[in-house]
Design goal:
Elements: H1 2-9, H2 12-34, H3 39-54, H4 63-77, E1 81-84, E2 87-90, H5 97-107, E3 111-113, H6 120-123, H7 125-132, E4 138-142, H8 145-154, H9 156-161, E5 166-168, H10 175-182, E6 186-190, H11 191-203, E7 218-222, H12 224-230, E8 235-241, H13 248-280, H14 283-296, H15 301-306, H16 310-323, H17 329-337, E9 341-344, E10 349-352, H18 354-360, H19 373-381, H20 387-420, E11 427-430, E12 433-437, E13 444-445, H21 454-462, E14 470-477, H22 478-482, E15 487-492, H23 499-506, E16 510-512, E17 520-523, E18 527-529, H24 532-549, E19 553-557, H25 560-573, E20 578-580, H26 588-594, E21 601-605, H27 625-629, H28 645-651, E22 656-660, H29 667-674, E23 683-691, H30 695-698, H31 702-711, H32 723-770, H33 774-793, H34 802-812, H35 819-822, H36 829-849, H37 856-886, H38 896-925, H39 930-940, H40 963-985
Helix pairs in contact: 2-4, 2-5, 3-4, 4-7, 5-7, 13-14, 13-20, 13-21, 14-16, 19-20, 20-21, 32-37, 32-38, 33-36, 33-38, 37-38, 39-40
Length: 1029
């Protein structure tokens, strides 16, 4: 029925293309007319189009002419030699009709799905040129620095020929260089670089000159599915050193390494015991040892090799299921206690056993056991100790608890580093640094660090410099960053399967653009085996045969680990090959470009090398070039042939052959892999090899299928192959895609809460940063704070609390407003606020009159930015903790998202209130010089003439009734402040006049006001030792 309706009315995509054809025809008419222009006249079209936009025309009005200008420029550049990343390339591209269609789709703010090899890089030049004419910033987003640099130099030649400027953001650039690149008409860069620059501009810059971006008007995202879906939830995080950082990793690493070696030896003994028990028929012993091996060293290479045997895997699966039952829980615990530590591969958690604690420190095994702090504190209460001694004992218990908890946590992280994180797979070591490797692409992720001390543990394991623990300074998800653009577009080879998600989250429509030449790829049915070992053997046999014939082969894997396994098997089979992984990251473009040479064998993850076309080398094709350039379909007969092209290619395959080592959970990723071959009309072929032990298959009843295969009498190595199998697998993929989409959508609902709050804070911060009248901002904050408090303390005559209001004012501002002064304003909060504000404003203006007028705006700006940043960073930590905490509320039949939104609202109100308070106290306690502060204090000593008191007067103290006592109290407070200031500076040599200020060097790490006090009391520093300074 659906096919019948589509045949009558056409599909969405055919209707989309039909609407584009008139525009393409119009572009071609302009192109023909522009052929008569000279080069200078064609270049002058750029300024002419800009003037027309200023005159009131829209981008849509000039679209056809602008696209024709670009097409004509490309034709005139043919034969030009261009230096691209150190290589000389000859320009040979002129946009054809389907590329013009893709450019129109991108300009309209949609996603253009174009097959690999259709020239998406060239397509982007059309809408980039058009949108840059308006003078707004235009961005082209790529997946890595290499592609950004390559495309800016390669495609940038077209823009430069037409008089536009082109910039490129690279990871190593400084602020000034970045500002210059963003000032260009068109800027290329990666999603990470654009996102980090946004965070630095809005969350860290302290001077308008430090900001580099020009807003977010229009962006085209290359490989849009990879960035907006695969990496959508990835947070971009700018971190800084934490105020308190542990250095126990270096101290504990030798002990943990010895423990790891002991466990390795123990697991090796268990592996031998398993084989012996299986041979002897002792299945009880075999199951026990298998359980201990998996929980003691799950990533042991010997264990993973053993799991390739179906019989051994069956024992492993049976014992894991058995030990989860209530009947065997105690038995499982006893088995684990015989190990030194346990590793949970699924949750990636590590835990010491009693045996391991004793091994780490035989003299004091309790050193690695967390004390029962509740029982210890309860016991102290029953001893009847004096208050001071009891408090001292309590601090000792709390300190011991904190020290042991930290030590155990560090040991657990080191164990995970040794057991679960393998060098050159999960990470690489370069330039004395540990760099994370993306699990799916094999690409290095510069600047990313594992959290919770894990990165420091891996650094200790590798013996490189251990960097300090970090705290989040600014963060945003890629998903939320790109939703800020006024107009967003994207291009990729596979987006149709995710069209619903693109529309719901980003409001992006997907348009499938037809290919310039027919796709001539022969897609064979999937081949299913029972075990991975059988599947890998079939892959090796297939590759060996094709390599012998000289056909290039690309093997795609889901994860880096599978790539390494296949590489080992190819080495054993004597097949020369290249592996695209983290170790060969720098050669990514080279390896992918050589994958089409005769007899080449390349292993890569499904997403590795995206953005680089695989071009076929000499001797790979046997069919005539005329057939490749023709419009002959796969099921049509070439001229002079009695067979269809499909039949000819089945009999004698040629072109690139793509092998999928397993099905990905997303159809889109599988289609990307298939699309690596058969570009621009070249023939090619593809096939996926599947086993019932693959992750996707195990989700959907692989044991039942395996049982059916056994009952049918199928022998080891016998495959199942049918088109029905392909459809069943795709149905399973759809279910997983729907599940993953629901997770991403739910995550977005959480992120939206934080995103709205970030927008408020960053807008406030940007106003402070860019507004030249910072003084007015300060007074506005003071007025808002006073009014808010007046509404709380003086709302009605009956409930008014003038005494508490006066006490609050005394703790925040250096003004002497008494209870008697405020009583007449009971029930009149606005009038009370105006009265208090005048007192505070008078005091602040007096202080400002004594400051250096040239330095005062910078001081006010710095104080405000520092207060905003400090409180925001503390808030980010609180929100992370809240998000972890609310998950458990689902057990109480409460929606975690609703709880999160409710508490986040309350926390954000508190945040804005704290920011205002810290700004108000900060501007009064800061000064452009010590002399200015002393002068202000001296004026404050004059009783009753200027009613000021120092902000450090205790908020709990009540103002004395006698004015002379009040004046004396003010004088004493200021004297103490002067003494502290002079004591801090009397040993510091004064710099010569005009000399630059010298940085202050600390003997110990700076302790923030809101950080835990170093004394170990468990209180914040500002409430403990910091209160005395």
């Amino acid at each position: 029925m659906i096919k019948l309706i589509a045949s009558i009315f056409g599909t969405k995509h055919t209707r989309d293309i039909k609407r584009l054809r008139p525009l393409v025809a119009e572009i071609n008419r302009f192109d023909e007319a522009f052929k008569a222009l000279s080069d200078d006249e064609l270049r002058a079209k750029t300024q002419e189009l800009r003037d027309r936009l200023k005159g009131g025309q829209t981008l849509d009005d000039i679209l056809c002419e602008a696209f024709a200008v670009v097409k004509n420029a490309c034709r005139r550049m043919v034969g030009t030699e261009i230096d691209v990343c150190g290589h000389k390339l000859t320009w040979d591209m002129v946009p054809f009709d389907v590329q013009l269609m893709g450019g129109i789709v991108l300009h309209k703010g949609k996603i253009a799905e174009m097959q690999t090899g259709e020239g998406k890089t060239l397509v982007a030049t059309l809408p980039l040129y058009l949108n840059a004419l308006a003078g707004e910033n235009v961005h082209l987003v790529t997946v890595n620095d290499y592609l950004a640099l390559r495309d800016s130099q390669w495609m940038g030649q077209v823009f430069r020929w037409l008089g536009l400027t082109v910039g490129c953001i690279q990871n190593t650039m400084g602020p000034q260089q970045r500002r210059e690149q963003y000032a260009c008409d068109i800027t290329y860069g990666t999603n990470a670089e654009f996102g980090f620059d946004y965070l630095r501009d809005n969350g860290m810059a302290t001077d308008p000159r430090e900001q580099v971006q020009r807003g977010h008007h229009y962006a085209i995202i290359d490989e849009v599915d990879s960035i907006l879906i695969d990496e959508a939830r990835t947070p971009l995080i700018i971190s800084g050193p934490a105020a308190v950082s542990t250095h126990q990793y270096s101290e504990l690493n030798p002990k943990v390494e010895r423990l790891f070696r002991r466990q390795q030896s123990l697991v090796a003994e268990h592996l031998a015991a398993v084989k012996k028990a299986v041979d002897g028929g002792d299945m009880v012993e075999a199951r026990k040892r298998m359980y201990q091996i998996y929980h003691g060293m799950p990533k042991s290479k010997a264990f993973m090799t053993m799991m390739e045997d179906p019989a051994m895997r069956k024992i492993h699966e049976d014992v894991e299921s058995m030990m989860l039952t209530e009947m065997h829980k105690e038995e499982a615990r006893e088995y684990r206690e015989e190990l030194f530590f346990t590793i949970d591969e699924r949750t990636r958690e590590a835990a010491l056993t009693d045996k391991g604690c004793a091994e780490l420190n035989p003299a004091d095994p309790e050193m690695f056991v967390v004390p029962d702090i509740v029982s210890a504190l309860s016991a102290l209460e029953g001893l009847g100790l004096p208050k001071e001694e009891r408090n001292k004992k309590r601090q000792e218990v709390q300190l011991q608890f904190a020290e042991r908890s930290e030590r155990i946590h560090n040991v657990d992280q080191l164990l995970k580093a040794y057991c679960l994180y393998e060098k050159d797979t999960e990470y690489v070591v370069m330039d004395n640094k540990v760099l994370i490797v993306d699990e799916f692409t094999g690409r290095i992720l510069p600047g990313r660090r594992w959290s919770d001390g894990l990165h420091q543990a891996v650094e200790a394991k590798e013996g490189v410099a251990i960097e300090r623990e970090t705290q989040t300074l600014a963060t945003i998800t890629i998903q939320n960053y790109f939703r800020m653009y006024d107009k967003l577009a994207g291009m990729t080879g596979t987006a149709e399967t995710e069209a619903s998600e693109f529309h719901q989250i980003y409001k992006l429509d997907v348009v499938v653009v037809p290919t310039n030449r027919p796709i001539r790829r022969v897609d064979a049915n999937d081949v299913m085996f029972r075990t991975q070992r059988e599947k890998f053997k079939a892959i090796i046999d297939d590759v060996v045969e094709r390599h012998r014939r000289g056909q290039p082969v690309l093997i795609g894997t889901v994860a880096v680990e599978t790539s390494e396994t296949l590489s080992r098997l190819f080495r054993e089979a004597g097949v020369p090959h290249n592996v695209l992984n983290a170790k060969n990251h720098a050669r990514e473009a080279e390896i992918v470009s050589l994958a089409g040479q005769k007899g080449a064998v390349t292993i890569a993850t499904n997403m590795a090398g995206r953005g680089t076309d695989i071009k076929l080398g000499e001797g790979v094709l046997w069919i005539e070039r005329a057939v490749v350039l023709s419009q002959t379909q796969l099921d049509e007969k070439p001229e002079g042939s009695a067979k269809t092209l499909r039949d000819l290619l089945d009999e004698k395959p040629c072109g690139l052959h793509v092998i999928g080592s397993e099905r990905h959970e997303s159809r889109r990723i599988d289609r990307q892999l298939r699309g690596r071959c058969a570009r621009q009309g070249d023939p090619g072929s593809s096939r996926f090899y599947v086993s019932l032990e693959d992750s996707l298959m195990r989700l959907f009843g692989s044991e039942r299928i395996s049982g059916i295969m056994t009952r049918l009498g199928m022998q080891e190595g016998d495959p199942i192959e049918h088109s029905w199998l392909n459809r069943s697998i795709e149905t399973a993929q759809r279910r997983v895609e729907q599940h993953n989409f629901s997770i991403r959508k739910r995550t977005l609902e959480y992120d939206d809460v934080m995103n709205k709050q970030r927008e408020v804070v960053y807008t406030f911060r940007s106003g402070v940063l860019r507004n030249p009248d910072v003084h007015g901002y300060v007074l506005d904050v003071i007025h808002d704070l006073v009014l808010t408090q007046a509404e709380g303390f003086m709302t009605s005559e009956r409930d008014a609390s003038p005494a508490e209001f006066a006490e609050w004012l005394l703790g925040i501002f250096p003004v002497a407003v008494s209870e008697a002064d405020l009583k007449p304003f009971a029930g009149k909060p606005e009038e009370a606020a105006e009265f208090v504000y005048k007192q505070v404003e008078e005091s602040y203006e007096l202080k400002c009159s004594m400051e250096n007028p040239e330095m005062l705006p910078n001081m006010e700006r710095y104080v405000m930015l520092h207060c905003i940043d400090t409180e925001w960073q503390q808030y980010l930590r609180s929100m992370d903790e809240l998000r972890d905490a609310v998950r458990l509320r689902a057990y109480g039949q409460r929606d975690p998202l609703v709880e999160y939104k409710r508490e986040a609202f309350t926390l954000f109100e508190d945040l804005m209130a704290r920011i205002k308070v810290t700004i108000c106290t900060g501007v009064f306690r800061s000064s452009t010089s010590l002399e200015s502060m002393q002068s202000f204090m001296a004026m404050a000593r004059r009783p009753r003439r200027v009613q000021t008191t120092h902000a450090e007067v205790s908020v709990l103290a009540k103002p004395p009734a006698d004015p002379r006592q009040q004046a004396q109290r003010d004088s004493d407070a200021f004297d103490k402040a002067i003494q502290r200031a002079e004591a801090a500076t009397k040993n510091q040599p004064r710099p010569a006049e005009g000399a630059p200020a010298q940085p202050v060097e600390r003997d110990a790490p700076k302790v923030g006001r809101n950080d835990p006090c170093p004394c170990g009391s468990g209180k914040k520093y500002k409430k403990c030792c910091g209160a005395e300074s």
